Structures are given as structure tokens and as C-alpha cells.
């Protein structure tokens, strides 16, 4: 029955498509014999056709990858030219996230696009390391990553098809259908180049930059992921407060249940904080125009090892009240609980 149509998702980190090899038709060989001064055997002619096609295939893929900002294999230095994502594939090009490679399959070829290095580990189970390095849940990143794989694969396919090379997808174990270019090929390639650039910029962000740029929903999602994985050691989770007793701002380290003293509050920010409703001498701060520079200044100094969330964000992510306890000057234990329905403990303008 033959070997069937090859396909792989590389442990959920990539995809493949089939490239039809040279047909070796009788009429093509007869045409060759008419023009050849020193004709070779049909077997040798067929091998030459296959080798020439292979060169065209690799050159076309390498050129397309270069247009997307990938480095060609000879500059990446893969061991024995084998693709990092699968040793059955020969590496053609790669960047910090993806590799592109090829392999033969009977008389045809297969192009594979899949994760390299850290990204393979992150996508196949090392979620806590991804949190520490990238500062967002790996399942959120997976959506953008899969968009990148699709965009790169489509771009390479279009480049091949523009040179008359037949690209196919599996429809069953032993059948396949040809891809078709939708609309103008060059216009579509321009769209894909822009998309790849945006996705690579996003996926390339480190934890420090992503946390700094995060909004409330993203901070909540990140804290939910940290809590669900039980990996509170990947970064410090801190909640900002104004301490009325000491007349200064602080960040409360949730895991270690202790204050992180923070300097640099402007007189204007302190004046704003003094006006906030308090519970047990502490007034929760929110992210707004008054606090943004102060909180982000701290995050910049911490270089990605701290996530600052507000009391409402903490309660939304954890689904529970926030309890703070400490020893006062008389060595008495003080316990302050910020409940979801406790309006006095919420910043102005926030309601339940």
C-alpha cells in the first residue's frame, strides 16, 4: 500500500506539509534524450532530476525564511545539519523560536516548521520556567505561537508555489490535496511578513518587559497561573499599600508575608495616598495615573522578578480575601483582612 502521507506536529510544537517531487514521466525523459549529447540512463537522469529539485527546494525555502528574518542553517551551526526539532529533518533556517527543515519521503519531500530550544520545553511541559522567563501563562503564549507557525508555513508554501512547486496537505492516510494561493500571492506574503514581525516581537519579550506592559486582566491571568501551578517561587507577588502609621508606601510580599520598603514616592503621590480609604492603617493602592510611574519604576529595578497586583486583582485571581499579619511596636500580632465585599478596603472608583 505504500508508506502513506507523512505528517507530524512535533509533540504539539509545529506542523508539516508535503512537497511533490519530480514526476519522472516517460515523456520528460524522451524529451531529455532528444537534446542530450551524451545521454545517461533513465535511473541516472531521474536521480539528477531529484537532486536538482532538492537544490531548488532548499534555496527557495531558505530565501523565503530570510525574508521573514530567519538565519540560514550554515550561520546557525546545527550539528550535522540535523534539525533540532527532529533529527530526521535537515535544518534549513531558524530564529530564536522556530526552525525550518526538510526530509525526503519516498519520491517526495516534507517541510517541517517547529519549536527550537527553550520553546520546545516550554510548550511541552516546563510551564513554570516559561513563567519565570516570559512573564505570562504558557497557554496564552501558545495561541500566538501557533499563529506564528501557521504564518511561517504559509509564507514558505506560497514562495514554493510561485516557483511552480506543488505543495500538498494530507486528507487521509494515503491521500492528499494541493494547496491553493488565495488572492494575490505577493500581497498575501506582505501580510504574512507583517504578521510574523508582530508575533516575533511579542513572543520575544522577556518577563521584565511583559510585566511592565501588562494590564489588569493580564496581571490577573498571570497570578492565576502561578497559583494554579503552585509555583509561587518563580517571582515575588506584591500588593501596594499606603501605610498611614509610617506615612510611606510599601509593597506587601504575599508569599513571605512581609513588607518590601519602597522609596521614591513623590509628594504628590503621598498626598494622593493619604486620601485613600484605609483598613487597619493600610490603604490599598490601585494602578492609575497617580501611581503608574512609581509602581513601574519599582518593576524596572526588579527586572522581571516581581509581579505587582492590586487588592481587587489579587481577589479576582485567587478567589479569596487577602490577609496581612505583622507584629506591631509592642510585638502584638496585627491581622488585617481585605474581603471582596469590603468597600472600605478598595480604592476609589472600584466596586463589587
Descriptive overview:
The strands form 3 sheets. Strands 1, 2, 3, 4, 5, 6, 7 and 8 form an 8-stranded antiparallel beta sheet that branches. Strands 9, 10, 11, 12 and 13 form a 5-stranded mixed beta sheet that branches. This protein has a two-stranded antiparallel sheet with strand order 14-15. It is α+β, with helices and mostly antiparallel strands. The protein folds into 2 domains: 14-205, no CATH class; 209-345, no CATH class. α2 (42-67) packs across α6 (138-162), α4 (117-123) crosses α5 and α8 (207-213) packs antiparallel against α11 (292-302). The N and C termini lie far apart (65 Å). The protein has helices at residues 26-35, 42-67, 73-76, 117-123, 127-134, 138-162, 185-203, 207-213, 216-229, 267-274, 292-302, 311-318, and strands at 14-19, 71-72, 82-83, 86-94, 98-105, 108-115, 167-170, 176-178, 236-243, 248-253, 258-261, 282-284, 306-308, 322-327, 333-338. The radius of gyration is 29 Å and the shape is elongated. The longest helix has 26 residues, at 42-67. A hairpin with a 3-residue loop joins β4 (86-94) and β5 (98-105).
Amino acid at each position: 500500500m505504500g508508506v502513506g502521507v507523512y505528517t507530524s506536529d512535533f509533540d504539539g510544537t509545529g506542523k508539516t506539509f508535503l512537497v511533490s517531487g519530480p514526476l519522472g514521466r516517460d515523456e520528460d525523459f524522451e524529451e531529455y534524450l532528444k537534446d542530450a549529447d551524451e545521454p545517461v540512463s533513465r535511473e541516472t537522469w531521474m536521480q539528477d532530476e531529484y537532486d536538482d529539485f532538492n537544490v531548488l527546494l532548499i534555496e527557495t525555502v531558505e530565501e523565503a525564511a530570510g525574508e521573514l528574518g530567519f538565519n540560514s542553517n550554515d550561520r546557525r551551526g546545527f550539528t550535522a545539519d540535523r534539525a533540532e526539532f527532529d533529527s530526521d529533518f535537515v535544518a534549513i533556517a531558524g530564529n530564536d523560536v522556530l526552525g525550518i527543515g526538510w526530509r525526503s519521503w519516498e519520491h517526495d519531500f516534507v517541510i517541517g516548521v517547529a519549536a527550537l530550544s527553550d520553546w520546545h520545553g516550554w510548550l511541552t511541559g516546563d510551564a513554570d520556567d516559561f513563567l519565570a522567563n516570559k512573564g505570562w501563562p504558557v497557554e496564552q503564549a501558545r495561541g500566538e505561537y501557533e499563529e506564528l507557525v501557521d504564518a511561517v508555513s504559509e509564507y514558505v508554501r506560497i514562495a514554493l508555489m510561485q516557483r511552480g512547486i506543488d505543495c500538498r496537505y494530507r486528507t487521509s492516510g494515503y491521500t492528499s490535496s494541493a494547496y491553493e494561493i488565495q488572492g494575490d500571492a505577493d500581497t498575501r506574503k506582505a501580510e504574512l511578513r507583517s504578521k510574523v514581525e508582530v508575533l516575533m516581537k511579542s513572543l520575544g519579550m522577556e518577563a521584565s518587559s511583559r510585566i511592565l506592559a501588562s494590564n489588569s486582566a493580564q496581571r490577573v491571568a498571570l497570578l492565576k497561573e502561578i497559583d494554579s501551578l503552585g509555583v509561587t517561587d518563580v517571582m515575588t507577588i506584591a500588593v501596594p499599600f499606603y501605610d498611614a502609621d509610617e506615612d510611606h508606601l510599601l509593597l506587601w510580599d504575599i508569599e513571605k508575608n512581609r513588607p518590601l520598603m519602597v522609596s521614591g514616592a513623590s509628594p504628590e503621590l503621598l498626598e494622593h495616598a493619604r486620601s485613600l480609604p484605609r483598613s487597619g492603617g493600610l490603604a490599598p493602592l490601585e494602578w492609575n495615573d497617580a501611581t503608574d510611574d512609581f509602581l513601574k519604576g519599582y518593576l524596572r529595578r526588579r527586572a522581571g522578578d516581581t509581579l505587582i497586583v492590586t487588592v481587587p486583582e489579587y481577589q479576582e485571581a485567587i478567589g479569596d480575601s487577602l490577609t496581612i499579619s505583622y507584629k506591631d511596636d509592642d510585638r502584638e500580632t496585627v491581622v488585617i483582612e481585605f474581603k471582596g465585599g469590603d468597600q472600605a478596603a478598595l480604592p476609589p472608583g472600584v466596586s463589587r
